[in-house]
User: What shape does this take?
Amino acid sequence: MTIDRSLTLSGTRNRRVTAVELVRDVLRSSIIRGDLPGGTRLVQTEIAAQLNVSTTPVREAMRDLASEGLITLDSHKIGIVRGPDWNEMSEIVEVRRALEPIAISHLVEAITPMELQEARTLADVLAAEEELGTWVQSNTRFHNVLHRATKTQRLAGMLVSLEEAGGVFVAQAQQLHPEIRRRAVQQHFDLLEAVAAKDIDRAIAIQLDHVKLPLENRTTG
Assistant: This one.
């Protein structure tokens, strides 16, 4: 198992991070990019040595990744990268499409100008970003800004969890069908425009189409 340490720069270059965040970002990017495919064993001591950190942040980062569904932890605390199960993504999309109309209604009423600007900044970043792992993580941050801007607790928490669980599928879908990214980027700007105009119906329609993008062009589950 070899981890591309350059991802510590690409994944965190725009923000200050803790050791736990650094390890989590590097591992998440490596999994999303496919550098650590399904079945790969993640040994804490090996990761700590490669990233020049102690095993404590590695252990915490691996727990976070397990909670996101990207890895499983065995009884010896060794992580195993999960392979993408597209039935799981179908379920994620189904649940999100049920929740998004409620969330958008809250979002349009509750979002602040500062939150809207933060989302716009991330949308611009996504329009320019080329590296897949970094794009997916920035995409997750973009949507989580909007989820949290609903000012709900349980609803936002559920959507954040679903957003993070869907990252590996978003990445694989773009690898198979690169045109999906162009459409996703445009939908980000369209969504922000609708939210700023307080056009709830248009925002809902855009978001419902957006969340099912990773499932397009798939003929198997």
